[in-house]
Write a structure and sequence with these properties.
The protein contains 14 helices and 12 strands. It is an alpha/beta fold and 393 residues long. The strands form 3 sheets. The protein has a 6-stranded parallel sheet with strand order 9-8-7-10-11-12, with helices on both faces. It has a 4-stranded parallel sheet with strand order 3-4-5-6. It has a two-stranded parallel sheet with strand order 1-2.
């Protein structure tokens, strides 16, 4: 397995890896050192490599333009490839699993002559995706000098490794992908080639290692507020949440503010709000009545898996699309960041939790997700690929 040092890319894979190890497979997991302990806890062997990618600790390092977001992955891949080739020399795997951001993985699979399966943690392309989304989004970039240089470098790197696939298709159009999100979150799901992309839903496990959370005595309803692990430098948003829900009768609030905000920036915090830089999110959601989320892939799945009504306040990248999907499913309200005032947040939460149709849709989607198979089906699909190259697997 190959991934990068980012919670949103590592976490979705962990329970699948744990299941494969439990079934008797030897799994090596290539990952930077900061995630080695988390990987080792699954029973897999961490294979440590040095990465140049920005981390969750410094989200601003990704820049502001599209080219700023994609160049680091190529630069990192070029310097990571020889590290990983050396690490696995003489001990090449039977099958390569990889996150969509792990560009060296399909290159190594090609070099070793083994199949690759992408573990896909977010939305997948549908038939017509390139023409409808990718081409318009990348048109200006591809016409720019910097964009042309990026693609020339990418194509040359692939050619050096005997691959003539266009860079845009290297990751976006894999041979096989196990999709670790529920099909309900997928736009244009009826146009997805499910012979390639197999939806298995959330693969979360019990996450017991993250710790438990107990509802305080007297808490009538519980609200969790979390913007995930990366785009958390939002003190103004957290202050709006404190104003919206502080001393709201019958409500207890768990407010996760991340590493980049000092609790002192929130001002006076009423007693019904507990503030943390990190919380055991799944444990809280199992007891929560509502969830204010940035609509990252992980948060969306956890909210759906627990049947928790959501207010989606997206911050970046795929979160805007996820927020729209949640709203269209009838289980969430989409509040753009600039509209997420105290009044709007409070109104959205109170209306959602009082609406019996939202409760019905949330329960229906929770059951539909569970039927997709989750971790066990993901492992079954991977074992089926293994049997193609190692029939006794």
């Amino acid at each position: 397995m190959f991934s990068i040092a980012a919670h949103g890319h590592v976490n979705p894979s962990l329970d699948v890896i744990r299941e494969l190890v439990a079934r008797g497979h030897r799994v090596s997991y290539a990952i930077p050192a900061s995630f080695a302990d988390k990987v080792a806890a699954t029973g897999a062997e961490p294979v440590i490599y040095t990465s140049t990618l920005p981390t969750d600790d410094d989200p601003d390092a990704w820049g502001t333009e599209l080219i700023d977001n994609i160049e680091p992955f190529l630069s990192d891949a070029v310097q990571v490839l020889p590290q990983l080739a050396a690490a696995f020399e003489g001990d090449e795997p039977d099958l390569v699993l990889h996150d969509i951001t792990a560009y060296p993985a399909p290159v190594l699979a090609h070099r070793w002559g083994v199949p690759a399966v992408s573990l896909w943690p977010n939305l997948v392309p549908w038939e017509g995706y390139e023409e409808e989304v990718l081409d318009p989004m990348y048109a200006d970039l591809k016409a720019s000098e910097r964009g042309r240089a990026y693609y020339a470098r990418f194509e040359a790197w692939l050619a050096e490794n005997g691959i003539d696939t266009h860079p845009d298709r290297l990751i976006a159009r894999p041979r096989k992908a196990v999709v670790l999100i529920p099909k309900a979150l997928q736009p244009n799901a009826d146009r997805v080639d499910e012979s390639v992309y197999a939806f298995v839903g959330a693969c979360q496990g019990d996450r017991a290692e993250q710790g438990e959370w107990r509802r305080p005595p007297g808490a009538g309803k519980v609200l969790l507020v979390s913007l995930g692990s990366t785009f958390t430098k939002q003190p103004g948003f957290y202050r709006e949440c404190v104003e919206a829900f502080g001393d709201l009768p019958g409500w207890h609030v768990v407010l996760q503010i991340g590493k980049h905000v000092d609790p002192a920036e929130l001002g006076d915090v009423p007693g019904n709000i507990e503030v943390h830089d990190w919380v055991p999110q799944p444990a809280i959601l199992r007891k929560a009545d509502a969830f204010i989320t940035h609509a990252g892939a992980g948060g969306c799945q956890e909210g759906l898996a627990t049947g928790t009504p959501m207010v989606a306040v997206p911050q970046a990248v795929d979160q805007f699309g996820n927020a729209g999907m949640l709203a269209s499913l009838g289980v969430a309200r989409h509040l753009p960041r600039e509209e997420a005032t105290a009044d709007a947040l409070r109104t959205a939460v109170l209306e959602l939790t009082a609406d019996p149709e939202v409760a019905r849709r949330s329960a229906e989607l929770r059951l539909r997700m569970a039927a997709e198979g989750g971790t066990r089906r993901a492992a079954d699909l991977i074992e089926a690929e293994l049997r193609l190259v190692r029939p006794t697997a």
